[in-house]
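Field reference: "sequence" (input) and "structure" (output). Example, Type 1 glutamine amidotransferase:
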Amino acid sequence: MLIGILQTGAAPDQLKPDSGDYPDMFQLLLAEQGFTFRTWRVEVMDFPPDIHAADGWLITGSRHGAYEDHAFIPPLEDFIRTAYGAHVPVVGICFGHQIIAQAMGGKVEQYDKGWSVGATDYDFEGQTLTLNAWHRDQVTQVPQGAKVVATNGFCANAALLYDDRMFTVQAHPEFPPAFVEGLMRTRGPGLVPDPLMQAARARLADPLDAGSIAKRIGAFFRAARQAGQQDAEAAHG
């Protein structure tokens, strides 16, 4: 199964020698799921020819806001809606989570209570999972028809499921602790309040549940493909 990675941002240059770029992190996260990958850098207007160029799509994080005026955002939103209409599965992470919600009629804003950084606990339908976070923007209005499947006291809409077609997560399961520590060194100063960064540093060694999200993403893509194949068979009698 080919997963197309729609890259909407890039890791800091000084961290790439050790961490790789965002597509590298997702390939590592999903290494045991049996997928192959191809990346399109949509941030610089490198888009796939159509929604069927891959079996499923994964939209990365970004330093951009979904509500900002960037050339790639309107065509990306069109791509998301077209994929949804055609039952081509899409996964969104952080910015991906936000841009999908916005494209589907929800609302994304810079959260007035500030940042979420580092190891963070979420309630995934009764199961507590710890994932790394790095965001200030949030989905503040859930699109009609989307189901909230993860939440916490700071981020009410931490993961969304759009029936069997799209699954999105606000946190960064692809970020290892070393990369979060690097973000705190390179992007945090002057941006993230010091007390918040100190609290995040104190949790750098906390066990993470990224593997659980990787399995859920893998199961989502496989189930969506199976459903699509069944629909195609039914259509042809």
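The longest strand covers residues 116-124.
Residues 2-235 form a domain with the Rossmann fold fold (CATH 3.40.50.880).
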